Structures are given as C-alpha cells and as structure tokens.
Amino acid sequence: MSQENANPIFDPATECASRDEIRARQFARLKEQTAWAYERVPWYRAQLDAIGFLPGDLKELADFSALPFTDKGALRDNYPYDLFAVPLDEVVRLHASSGTTGKPIVVGYTQNDLEQWRRSIMAIIQMAGVVPGDRVQMAFGYGMFTGGFGLHYGAEGLGCMMIPAGSGNTERHIMMIEDYGTTVLVATPSYAMHICEVGEHMGYDWEASSLRVGLFGGEPCPPKLKEEIETRMHVFCTDNYGLTEVMGPGVSGECLVSRHQQHIVEEQFYWEVVDPDTLRPVPDGTPGELVLTPLHKEATPVLRYRTRDLTRVVTEPCGCGRTTARMDKVRSRTDDMLIIRGTNVFPSQFEDVLHAIEGASPHYRIVIDNEAGLDRLTLQLEVTSGFFTDSYADMEAFRRQVAERLHGTLQVGVEVRLVEPGRIERSVGKTKHVDDRRVR
Ligand code: DLL
C-alpha cells in the first residue's frame, strides 16, 4: 500500500541535524543524566564508585562506554523504588513489565518524563504517516503495559482523535472501525492479523474500510506477517519499537521510506551496539546487542541499559530526509524472553509457579503456536506419580488450578494439558522446555 499523505517531520531541528550535532547534543545530555543518576540513586553511585568514575570524568563521548551496564537484574533487585531518583510525590505514573522471576520491574515518570514520552511518540507516529485529525483506535490494554497509555497520549498530543477501545473484544473493534471511521489502528501485529481474520469471517470489506495505517509494535513483526496484513487488511503497516525499562514505546519507529528499519528517536535515546559476548562496542552497521540510555529521564534514569535485543544500527541519511540513526528490525534476543501477544514471558516464571504447586512435576513443555493469527500458549505438564489419579474430576480441578496460577503470574492465558508421569521426553543434554512453533 502506498501512503500518499504528506509526511511532515515532527521536529526538523532534531531529526534532520548533522550527525555531529546529534552526537554533541546527546553528549551534553549524557553528562547531565550521569550526574543525575550518580547524585540521586545510591545504586548508581555505588556502581560508579566501584570503578572510580565520577560524572565529571566524562570528557568525551567515548568515555561513556567505560560505565557499567544496567540490566533487568538491577531493576529486579531494586524493586520497587530503590532506583527512583526523585521523591515519590513527584512521580505521577508507574508502569511495569515482567521480570525474569517473581516480581515485575517497575518504572516511574514525572510530569516532565511524560512530556518527553509524548514527544517521542509524536515523532514516531508522524514518521509512520499519522497526521493531526487521524482517528486512532487503541487495541493495546490500558494497564501496567506501556503500550496503551504511551501511544494514547502521544497520538492525542499530535491532535488525533483517540478512540480508547482497549484490548480484546475483536468484533467490537471491527464495529468501531466501521462506525467511527477509524483511520489508524494501534495493536501488536499478531492481534492486527487476528482482527483482520475475524473481519474476513464476518464479511467485513477491509478494502472499503476507512483504516489507512497500522501502528504496530510490542513484539517482532516478521516481513511475511507485515506483507500479509498489508495485502489482506489494506493498511500501511508500520512497526515501532520500545521497552519499559527506558520509557516504553517511542524508542524507534518506521518511516514511509525505510520499511525494514526504524529511526531511533535520538533526541531521547543514546544508543550503542555491543558484542553480546565481549560487551565491547562494535563498529556502526555491525550486528550486536542494543544498549540504550534515555537522555531526559527524571524519575527512573537508566545508564547503559542492556536491552538483550539483537539488531544493527546504520547512520546514513534516509530518503525521508531524517538523519537519525536507523536500527534493523529486532528479530531475536540474547535471553530466553518470549513475547506472547505482546506480553513478555520468561520460562523461569513457569518454573516458579509449578514449583509451588503440589503434584506438578519438573517435567513440562511450553508450546507456542499461532491460531488465526494469534499466539497460543500451551503447557504440557506431567503430574507426579504419587499425585496422579484416574479421577477425571480431581485431575480437572488440578489442571484448572495450574492454569489459574499461571494466568495470575504471566498475565496471559495458558492452556494446560496434563500428561501421565513419564510422558514428557527426557533429553540427554540440556532440557528443552520451550517449543516455539510460530511461523517467523
Ligand atoms: O513492548 C513497549 C512497546 C509497546 C513497544 C508498544 C512498541 C509498542 P516491553 O513490554 O517492556 O515494552 O517489551 C520490550 O519487547 O525489548 C523487545 O524484545 C520487544 N519489542 C517491543 N517492540 C518490538 C518491535 C514494549 N517492534 C521488549 N519489534 C523489547 C521487535 C519488539 N521486538
């Protein structure tokens, strides 16, 4: 699909500046952020003290790579507020995302953080061809997940009409698109595909629909899926990337020219790409793990956050006129985090839930596949021999209990299938708990 609309640049002064100007502005902000974290967060002070680094030692950009990384573990260990850099009465919003185990990781926003976030979103949605006056229908949930509120306020800020439908109830989404003349749909790509298929079954004519742009993100959008959504739903499908730890959505977005890469909002984020083994920076354009430092974060500043996302970043100017760096689509991670319908799930969370349930054996397999475009999560679980009975009612009650506990922890539905003791294949080497059958 072509996007005929004019695609003005949100802020030419920052998005079209020379590379030197961009890096110079980033360096000035990095100095501020490093001092902010050092002076206000004991954990950061201890990290920097441990290597004898004072914020004043940042004399040039290259010095920044001497700083230690921050990872999910640091956020987990400091749950919930120990990494906050402002008094809690200056925090006006909390969001959270799954931790590897037990507790989630929590981030906070001051009024100014929300304003910066709004600006990032305005930049990336305008890249995608969204203009003031567009009618934007939200299919992300409005909850602790950053996707709903983040994109909501950014789209409102740009002057769009927000339709806060929220997640779920697919038929109602289709009705709203038709009745309200929705022009932009915000969703995970897999949920967009599902909406498309449900519409087709209802006999909805996507070609005649008002829908023009898909603002998708929160999970990888493989090229095949993108192509399929564009052809069947007749929308211009754009992908945007972000993560809770550094802000939420709004880190990078796809413009109308560079369809396989995403412009990083460099006014807000300093990016580095490192070799995931040596953790040393790699030359521009070389694949590696993305490391991000938000440049304006007051409530929860983060220095050198290891995203675990694998990508490559190039800095040549883009045909759209922007000079901001572009990252390749993220297709894989260096850890075992799974993204199920936009929700982050770690196999270790299954482990923790099962460990606490009497009768659940340590032998299980997590199977992920797609049905009608939607990810489906199934747990095949062996029951311990002492617990296994022929009573259907007992086993069904047990199955339900496992499913409910998993749902409570993971925030996504899991179909639990019980199997007899000894049925899950034992492996000789590393046990493979996850069988991801999704087509990529
Ligand atoms: O998914 C933020 C977001 C919401 C981005 C809505 C875009 C739209 P988390 O729940 O913390 O935050 O998950 C972050 O999801 O490290 C990636 O592995 C993955 N991810 C997010 N967007 C994309 C994308 C939000 N467009 C983690 N392509 C990240 C590939 C993505 N992976």
Structure, described:
With 440 residues, the protein is of the alpha/beta class. The chain folds into two domains: 330 residues, Rossmann fold (3-Layer(aba) Sandwich), CATH 3.40.50; 100 residues, 2-Layer Sandwich (GMP Synthetase, Chain A, domain 3). The strands form five sheets. It has a nine-stranded mixed sheet, sandwiched between helices. Helix 2 packs across helix 3 and helix 10 packs across helix 11. The longest helix has 22 residues. The protein starts with 11 loop residues before the first helix and ends with a strand. It binds 5'-O-[hydroxy(phenylacetyl)phosphoryl]adenosine. The site of 5'-O-[hydroxy(phenylacetyl)phosphoryl]adenosine has 22 residues, from helix 6, strand 7, strand 8 and strand 12.
Specify the overall morphology: globular
The span between the termini is: 22 Å
Query: What is the CA-atom radius of gyration, in angstroms?
Result: 23 Å
User: What proportion of the residues form beta strands (DSSP E)?
Assistant: 15-25%
Q: Roughly how much helix do the residues carry, as a percent range?
A: 25-40%
Summarize the biggest pleated sheet: 9 strands, mixed
CATH class of the largest domain: Alpha Beta
